[in-house]
Amino acid sequence: MDIVEQIRAADIKLDRYTTGNHKTLCPQCSHTRRNKRDPCLSVTIEQNGAVWNCHNCQWTGGAREQTDRPIVRRDRVIKRPTIQPESLRITSDVVAWFAVRGISLATLERMKIKTANVWMPGPNCEVGVIAYPYYRGGEVVNVKYRTEDKQFRQEKDAEKILYGMDAVPADAKSLIWVEGENDLLAFHEAGIFNVVSVPDGAPKQARDDVPNPEDDRKYEYVWNCNDWLKRFGAGIDRGNQPSHWPRYLHVGRLARGERCAVQGRQ
Ligand SMILES: [Zn+2]
Q: What residues have CB less than 8 Å from 171, skipping those under 6 apart?
């Protein structure tokens, strides 16, 4: 389905399905309201997708162009996480752990950071961890788990994407790239939301060649978010636009701190 079909499938009716901001009736709540004609649903349509948000019932959703779907590689199948962050809670010791690092509960709640008990490869047993859900278009695509002694893992076979995408304002003109989730949270504390974090920390070295997206495991999150990145005029095209490549191939350098203004305490 294209974006317009997806908007219609959500029962949202617009006079014109053009890019830009629209106001219309909310299919979730307008029929139940005293003022049935109040256009409480805001719909923003862009080149690669759309988002909507009801000011009355808080219903939100979005549509994405098909090409934003993950690249399915021959050798594996992408799975969605089995854990749903909404069903988890955050314990007071984790809130306190973040408070020491200057990260407020409001930021943790915005990013739906939770406490979980999951199997970790180091101790080879279930342990209490911090869970950082990776959202794209309102959907949990991956989850990063972190133990107190700084061991990490992500959901098995989940798609790798950038962290923080859904918190980036739709009208952001630029993106700041950081190396870890906590660095991103520090930016949020400073009121800066056009930030994403790479999912695997900083690459050891920048690549100089141009890999095929199907073979590119190290930067697959860039490919998987490519349509979204193009919104900021910063997407990459297969092979034939080398001028765009260095920005991404040097993500490692950026993320290692050469332009990272705020560092979260790890
Ligand atoms: Zn509504």
A: none
